[in-house]
Write a structure and sequence with these properties.
single chain, 155 residues, alpha+beta, four-stranded antiparallel sheet, two-stranded antiparallel sheet, 6 helices, 46% helix, elongated
Length: 155
């Protein structure tokens, strides 16, 4: 599996679980079929701009993506999006994206964070993303924006 797939899976895991150590993250990734070392995770965490924050219980820490508008990580996310999205199609008020297996969740999170006014919501499976659009007249606009994002990431 590619580095981009691994990093998307890391985003998916830390968004769903309070991961306190790199070793815990390695174990989650191994359960998902990634055969990696703690050193690799350490590099990924640094490259992706992941930080430790206080968990909801107020006593433990967890990994989280740094929440800034301008972040070096945004380029990484665009790269991951480009490397995992296989196709973008639309029909009526839906935009449907096909991704590599296991990459839909993190790619959908990126789409959600774009906060397009026309997007009502995003649902992800394992390799498919459904983007619900507020008005069928806006569907092509959103599809074109996502395709432009995909193309801009190739630069």
């Amino acid at each position: 599996m590619t580095r981009a797939n691994r990093q998307l899976k890391i985003l998916d895991i830390i968004s769903k679980h309070d991961i306190d150590t790199q070793e815990e993250l390695v174990e989650y990734l191994k359960k998902e079929g990634f055969n990696i070392t703690q050193a690799t995770i350490s590099r990924d965490i640094k490259d992706m701009g992941i930080i430790k924050t206080l968990a909801a219980d107020g006593r433990h820490y967890k990994y989280a993506v740094q929440r800034t508008k301008e972040s070096a990580a945004s380029d990484k996310f665009l790269n991951m999006f480009k490397n995992t999205v296989l196709s973008i199609r639309s029909s009526y008020n839906l935009v449907v994206l096909k991704t590599e297996v296991g990459s839909a969740g993190p790619a959908a999170e990126l789409i959600d964070k774009l906060s397009f006014d026309e997007v009502l919501g995003v649902i992800a499976g394992d390799n498919t993303i459904f983007v619900a659009i507020d008005d069928p007249n806006h569907t092509e606009l959103v599809r074109e924006r996502l395709e432009a994002l995909l193309e801009s990431a190739k630069i």
